[in-house]
Design goal:
Length: about 100
């Protein structure tokens, strides 16, 4: 995992991997000719939708939160910031105790 923090068999969902993946897919799509480029652009769009859907489902202002989240990740690649749906703002995923399984 790129820039994600691993503690034995769990990963802190830092969204950095997500944002890095979107950036790489967008760059590759710009260099890829034909229909494959469209498929790659659609994949990047789907990845961008994940934090938006989480925010919308929690009844939060997704546009505001996502702009803050993008800015935080652009400023620091190693940030652990994500959407804290309970407080309605960004929060440190490690401090909140939010983890994902490394392997299922």
């Amino acid at each position: 995992m790129y820039h994600c923090y691993s503690i034995q068999h769990i990963i802190i969902p830092c969204n950095t991997f997500l944002y890095h993946t979107i950036q790489v897919v967008d760059e590759l799509a710009a260099k890829t000719p034909g229909k494959r480029s469209l498929a790659m652009q659609s994949f990047a769009k789907a990845l961008r939708a994940i934090p938006s859907i989480i925010s919308d489902n929690a009844g939060l202002d997704a546009a505001e939160l996502l702009s803050q989240l993008r800015a935080a990740h652009a400023a620091d690649d190693a940030t652990r910031m994500g959407v804290d749906v309970l407080k309605g703002k960004m929060g440190d995923m490690k401090e909140l105790g939010i983890f994902e399984a490394f392997k299922v």
